[in-house]
Write a structure and sequence with these properties.
The complex is a heterodimer of chains A (311) and B (319). Chain A has 311 residues and is mainly alpha-helical. Chain A has helices at residues 4-16, 22-32, 37-67, 70-74, 90-97, 101-133, 138-149, 153-166, 173-179, 181-197, 201-209, 214-225, 227-243, 246-251, 260-267, 276-296, 298-310. The radius of gyration of chain B is 26 Å and the shape is globular. The chains are: A mainly alpha (311), B mainly alpha (319). Chains A and B meet through α1, α2, α3, α6 and α7 of A and α2, α4, α5, α6 and α7 of B.
Chain lengths: 311, 319
């Protein structure tokens, strides 16, 4: 676990690419002059571009379908299907003004933000206690939390449905806000434990000698220093919430309460042959908030992802 | 840790200020308890309790809206003779092994490619990760459209190239449907594997490669004897996660095929949803999802040993 600071630097240079960790750049250039350009074209650029095109094609296809007129969608022979010259906003208009889509978007956002905030608060306290309070059995509890990260929602949803029903939460956003933290807390606790471990112990000792309470230490010293970790945990949790499907599918029944993924799968698939345009527009609009968030915080996102695996 | 604190306590007892310290340390367990309370509350109420409840439900004949009677192992005996259940087990294993193996191969290859000196490196890496952050269901819908029986762009392109004459019925044919869901899973999983392995690759010192090159090592030898051994620990962890999440996958299948055609793509998770929530037979559904637990335990054991090995390799103590 002591390798975290170095690994964080690596992640930064990994993401910004340009960041001058001078020694390393020198080395890699030193090796790569041995390869000629034609050789690099075949062994590097060609496979790389194929993989990237395959990875990104579905999004291009989604976006294109969302703005194509219906007749062009279904007539592949008269028009070249890979492009359209007369884009239409009909599908997007239908989505925004003739369906509950804005409501579903709001539901998803509401549930994701609430459960993320709740989980981050719980995880900060738990991670701090495990790493720094070192109460009896802290190691054990840390291990148990890691194990609970490995319990998948697909084996919990049946009993959870009965629990949610007993508590009278069925078909309300509260059902999701209270159950999502079981997915998020193990992950973010584990991530934050890694960040807290890198904060020098001496800072806390000084504060203790100056008479600070544990709560003051946490809010005034540890949290400000752990802000990158908090952002990482927040973004990743938010994405997990947005992506969650099986709980939302099981616990919510009325159309107005659904979240975007569930609503699109259930409400837009009506056997209508002209559904594709609005279906793809819905899928695109549902991914957009996450992609925008991701574009601003790529670095934090990757450090969350790799951090959770590395710890 | 406990020993050290005990010692310092006995050492410093005579000094007055030490008693304040002592009290704080004595309270440490209580403080820890209060700090842990919210997290443990959630995990016990909504994770540990349902986990136990699920095992109990699988031994009852519970239906939706009706608490069940204890019926022993009847649900499991019933499943034992149920060919659809065994088909779903087969599908799950096939799905997991094929998808994970290919994800690993392509992911490692992509990580090695991205580790080279490239123009627009940062942008490329950011783009590669996009499939992973877009909600699975939404990208699965895009694949549903790409694999449409009538208007599939793949069928169209192949027809234009003159390779086939009729549309391929991607999601309606047993073999094609399995291949398509596996492809979609690989598509979504590769970025995760690639980016985490890339983070591992970045920690390998370039001087090792230079030394090996001076000694006359080929590309393959450099990979086999430097990259692979140094990457083994992180590969173990990444692949355990990948296997675990592939094995319990639900949403991709549900959005693309809902288990069809003729149950050819039913995984254990989708079958348990169908039996328990749509069919209303909670007991049997719980039994199906509990049947996943032995497989998951096996994966967790592998993860455990992977982590141990990593600590040992890096010469860390068991902190």
């Amino acid at each position: 676990m002591t390798d975290l600071p170095t690994s964080r630097i690596d992640l930064k240079s990994l993401l910004s690419g340009s960041s001058p960790s001078a020694a390393k750049d020198d080395h890699s250039e030193g090796m790569s002059y041995l390869e000629s350009l034609p050789r690099r074209l075949v062994t590097l650029y060609l496979p790389l571009s194929i993989i990237v095109i395959v990875l990104l094609f579905p999004f291009y296809w989604m976006a294109l379908t969302a703005i194509k007129p219906d007749d062009q969608l279904l007539d592949l022979n008269t028009y070249n299907p890979f492009w359209t010259w007369n884009p239409t906003f009909k599908h997007i208009h239908k989505l925004l003004f003739e369906s509950y889509y804005p409501l579903w978007l709001w539901n998803t956002m509401y549930v994701a933000i609430c459960s993320t905030v709740v989980s981050i608060i719980a995880s900060v306290l738990a991670a701090y206690a495990i790493v720094r309070l070192r109460y009896r059995g802290a190691q054990w509890i840390g291990g148990l939390i890691f194990l609970s990260y490995l319990v998948p929602p697909s084996i919990l949803f049946i009993p959870l449905a009965t629990v949610v029903f007993q508590y009278g939460l069925f078909d309300s956003p509260m059902a999701l806000i209270l159950t999502y933290p079981t997915i998020l807390i193990p992950f973010s606790t584990w991530l934050l434990m890694g960040y807290f471990k890198t904060i020098p112990f001496e800072l806390e000792e000084c504060a203790l000698i100056d008479g600070a309470s544990r709560w003051q230490i946490l809010t005034r010293i540890v949290l400000p220093l752990a802000i990158p970790g908090l952002i990482s945990a927040f973004i990743f949790c938010f994405t997990l919430c947005w992506n969650e499907f099986i709980y939302a599918l099981t616990f919510l029944t009325s159309v107005q309460n659904k979240t975007v993924p569930v609503a699109i799968v259930n409400e837009f698939v009506d056997g209508d042959i002209y559904r594709w345009g609005s279906l793809m527009a819905g899928a695109l609009a549902g991914s957009l908030p996450l992609v925008i968030l991701y574009a601003f915080f790529v670095e934090h996102y990757v450090s969350a992802m790799t951090g959770a695996v590395k710890e | 840790m406990a020993d050290i604190t005990l010692q310092s306590r006995t050492d410093r007892r005579p000094i007055r200020e030490a008693t304040a310290w002592d009290q704080l340390k004595a309270n440490r367990n209580w403080l820890g308890f209060w700090f842990m309370l919210p997290a443990m509350g959630f995990l016990i109420l909504f994770l540990a309790y349902p986990l136990g409840l699920g095992i109990w439900i699988s031994f009852t004949d519970a239906r939706i809206g009706r608490p069940g009677q204890f019926i022993g192992t009847e649900n499991y005996e019933w499943l034992w003779d149920d060919s659809i259940f065994w088909l779903s087990v087969f599908n799950t294993l096939l799905y997991t092994f094929v998808a994970s193996a290919i994800k690993f191969a392509i992911g490692l290859y992509l990580a090695l490619l991205l580790n080279e000196n490239l123009p627009f490196k940062a942008m490329l890496r950011a783009l590669v990760l996009i499939p992973f952050i877009v909600p699975t269901v939404l990208s699965a819908l895009a694949f549903w459209w790409i694999f449409d029986a009538q208007f599939s762009i793949i069928s169209w392109s192949l027809k234009q190239m003159g390779l086939i004459t009729n549309n391929i019925n991607f999601l309606g044919d047993v073999t094609w449907a399995r291949a398509c869901v596996i492809f979609a899973n690989i598509w979504r999983g590769v970025p995760f594997v690639a980016i985490t392995l890339l983070a591992g690759l970045q920690t390998v010192s370039p001087s090792l490669y230079e030394a090996a090159t001076l000694d006359g090592a080929t590309n393959w030898q450099r990979f086999r004897f430097i990259t692979y051994p140094l990457l083994t620990p992180i590969i173990a962890v990444v692949m355990t996660f990948s296997v675990l999440f592939t094995f319990t996958d639900f949403q991709l299948i549900w959005a693309m095929t809902r288990g069809g055609p003729v149950n050819a793509t039913h995984l254990m998770a989708t079958l348990s949803y169908q039996r328990a929530i749509i069919g209303g037979v909670l007991g049997e559904g719980a039994a199906i999802s509990n049947a996943m637990i032995p497989f998951l335990l096996a994966a967790i054991m592998i993860s455990w040993f992977g982590l141990q090995r990593r600590k040992w390799q890096q010469g860390e103590s068991n902190d």
